[in-house]
Amino acid sequence: MSDDEAVVRGSDPVFLHDSFLAWCKEEPVPVIEDFGIDLARVPVEPWDKYGMNGSICLVKGRDDFNTIFTFELPPGSKSRPLNHIYEEIIYVIDGYGSTQVQTPDGQKHSFEWGRNSLFSVPLNSTYQHFNGSGKEPARFVSCNNFPFLMNLFRNEEFLFSCDHQFPERLGPNGYFQGEGQMVELRPGRHQWETNFVSDITNFELRGWAARGKGSSSLRWILSDGTMGCHTSQIMPGMYKKAHRHLCGTNVFTIDGDGYSLLWWEGKEEDDIVRVDWDHGVVVTPPENMFHQHFNVGTTPSRYLAIQFGTVRYPMTWQKKEIWEGKVDTSVEEGGNQIEYDNQHPIIHRMFLDELDKRGLKSEMGDLFDEEKIRAGN
């Protein structure tokens, strides 16, 4: 058979097939595809497989490894008992409730969650979600590696009915109640290991000055999984340094008032894209697209980034290379970050214009000649 001939299965040719996208077309829920998606407001429909309402969200900057499902539990309802061999991280957008997990040893663990909770059920453990309100729905997102496994195994039944257990993923019992362990490495690599974080808006982060003035961050290791995430904070009147990375990093707005800018290298003047923050919005920058986050409010702001691969288990050589130091190393030195001194003048001018409109003060004056920038010089 020549290189351009298709492999044939029965009467249908199979060529350049994506089993995950084919699966999406067969599911009875909305499939939303966009550059940025407001997960707090996307439409959802009954999804009997999960016993919840849901939708499939395909962000433009996604990779081949992860995707986002949005779920909603109607008032007073519960999901089906579930288990699966794809990994997921759950981020709660609104509402409150609880999750019960049955571990391989037969124990049952329950924990209560609310807005801005973060958790991961250990791999293939049986679990069930419950809405704690009889009046309001609860909405949360699952960022998961279902696409990778669906394209690998091409068998939905296997993903949902495999009975193999992974007791090494459980961690101490206290991990289901939010207890954890700090793993000290260095700024940008510090990790909190647990299964459940009740509120990522108030959890103490660690300073990471190399990423920008007033910047702090903390990485989460949840259920010893390979889905990685971190929370970062920006102080009022400040912003982080621009950087770029591989596609597939889903950035969720948690709180605060600000915006992000995205652009391709050398295109700041012509093709810069602005995304204003709102709780529940997710943006996933495409491969190597520079992006930068700005706080133009009066309170600290935070965001959550979730991707396939962790500092512990990077999964690809590119991510190992990035986390070995490229993430906070200047592009002039072979890294992925633009230092303040090297950023395009339009970046800080836009920031000052936005603060002026709001009657707020910049806290970046020790790093920039702001009078000169305002004068257009």
Give an overview of the whole structure:
The chain is globular and about 65 Å long. The protein has two domains: 142 residues, Jelly Rolls (Sandwich); 166 residues, Jelly Rolls (Sandwich), CATH 2.60.120. With 377 residues, it is α+β, with helices and mostly antiparallel strands. The strands form six sheets. Strands 4, 14, 15, 17, 18, 19, 21, 24 and 26 form a nine-stranded mixed sheet that branches.
Helix content, binned percent: 10-25%
What is the level 1 CATH name of the largest domain? Mainly Beta
- Here the CATH topology of the largest domain equals Jelly Rolls
Which consecutive residue ranges, at least 5 long each, have pLDDT under 50?
Answer: 1-6
Known CATH architecture of the largest domain: Sandwich
Q: Which shape, going by the Cα principal axes?
A: globular
Give the overall pLDDT as a whole number. Answer: 94
Helix vs. strand class: alpha+beta
Assigned CATH superfamily of the largest domain = Jelly Rolls
Strand fraction equals 25-35%
Give the N-terminus to C-terminus distance in angstroms: 65 Å
Please tell me the total number of domains: 2
β-strand number: 27
Count of helical segments? 7
Radius of gyration: 22 Å
Query: Largest sheet, if any?
Result: 9 strands, mixed
